[in-house]
Specification:
Layout lengths: L7 H4 L11 H32 L5 H28 L9 H22 L2 H31 L4 H12 L2 H5 L4 H24 L4 H20 L3 H23 L2
Length: 254
């Protein structure tokens, strides 16, 4: 979202005594969200215009199927996450590692079903991938609004929620972002989804590549979030997203 001055606990790499973010940090994040959301929200609009004017006419039905595919993949992750959480010791701190790992199998399996039975042809696949990436942008915006409500909520329940996000490194990552970085990341992830959808539509056996690649990218991102290496993480996401998109186009236009 926006750069902030580091407090003493941030500079030392430790968490605040009660596990919550300091009030001044939460106030800054709260005030930055309204400026960040419009920048991220414009990403799908720009991508849609570019795709429609340069590659294939818009196909709302295919985009809707892509969005539905992402929602189904999220629904698949929920029971798996609940099962893992139930087997972890109660005192174990939650992490983003398992959600990052399961995202590959869940999303790429549903994407495979989508290209086998839902959409076909370059145009359909292109816009299905666009819909997949766009609904993820919508999810990001909704999550940001919900987290903003938590930031200044004085209740103990809200503080517990913030401590959970801090323990996973999520809030520390968010406070390191500037709006442009957030938009670039969302654009790169959308290109990744478009590229993977094109590749699986061209050759479904490539799911054996996209599935581990998807998980590996997310796991690497989690590690970099934990180390607060935001610029490096964003660079990797951009490179991989652009490469996937380019390979998808190349496969269909050789």
């Amino acid at each position: 979202m926006g750069p902030i001055h580091m407090s003493r606990w941030e500079a030392s790499g430790t968490e605040p005594p009660d596990g919550d973010l300091p009030l001044d940090v939460r106030q800054r994040l709260h005030s930055q969200v309204p400026f960040t959301l419009p920048v991220i929200a414009i990403v799908p609009v720009v991508i849609a215009v570019v795709l429609a004017t340069t590659l294939a006419p818009a196909r709302a039905g295919a985009a809707a199927l892509g969005a539905a595919g992402w929602l189904v993949s999220v629904a698949l992750r929920a029971p798996a996450g609940a099962l893992v959480s139930s087997r972890m010791p109660k005192q174990a701190a939650p992490t983003l590692t398992f959600p990052a790992w399961i995202s590959g199998p869940a999303e790429e399996f549903i994407r495979l079903l989508l290209v086998l039975f839902g959409v076909n042809g370059f145009g359909g696949l292109l816009w299905a991938g666009f819909g997949w990436g766009t609904i993820e942008v919508v999810s990001t915006l909704v999550t940001a609004v919900m987290v903003r409500r938590l930031l200044l909520d004085p209740s103990e329940k809200a503080a517990e929620g913030r401590r959970l996000l801090v323990s996973m490194g999520w809030l520390q990552y968010v406070q390191s972002l500037v709006p442009l970085l957030g938009a670039v990341e969302r654009a790169a992830v959308s290109l990744l989804h478009i590229g993977f959808t094109l590749l699986l539509g061209w050759n479904p056996w490539l799911v054996l590549v996209t599935m581990p690649a998807h998980s590996a990218l997310n796991l690497r991102a989690v590690r970099l979030i934990e180390r607060r290496s935001v610029i490096l993480m964003e660079t990797i996401v951009v490179v991989v997203g652009a490469a996937a998109f380019a390979l998808g186009l190349l496969a269909w236009h050789r």
